[in-house]
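Let us work through a complete example step by step.
Step 1: write down the sequence.
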Amino acid sequence: MNMFTYYKNILSNFLRTLHESKAGFSLVESLVAISIVTLSITSATTIVQSSLQNASVVKARSTAVALANEGIEYARNLRDNGYLAGETFEEGSFGDFVSMCTSGCSLDVLDQSTSYRVCNGDCPALGLSDSGYRIGVGNPTTFVRTITTNINQIEGENVEVSIMSEVVYRGSNRAETIALESYLLNTN
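Step 2: predict the structure and record it as tokens.
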């Protein structure tokens, strides 16, 4: 039984008792009834307001996770397209991306190809357009995605690349960060 139903039952029992006694309402009885109704409405309003706030926090966090995951998928796409084009792990578009993004890059998809910009930790905010979240396109948002890379070697051989996709956004009252990491193996 929720709080609203509880107070409603108390009020109806109180009013039924008064009605059975055939007496009119005194000032005290009226004030008690009004207080109970006011308390019920205030409680319900507080719960609704809290739920709406939580929903916006969850939406922003879910968007940040999706954007971070998308950054890793862009990097994976660069590696796979390079492999299909006959490029080696260290050379070509993926090798350039890995060597340029050790201190941070922003990634964007333009017409089925992935482009990146070196931003050295000061990446631009993403904009929201009809085609999704993009750099410099659409309505500005508070989401900033930074991709950093690190080559992992064993005995001097490039074995894998660590891809860190970090999305920073403005939460309810402070900056929030979502960071995902993936390892892309040398497929050559």
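Step 3: interpret the result. Helices lie at 3-20, 27-84, 92-100.
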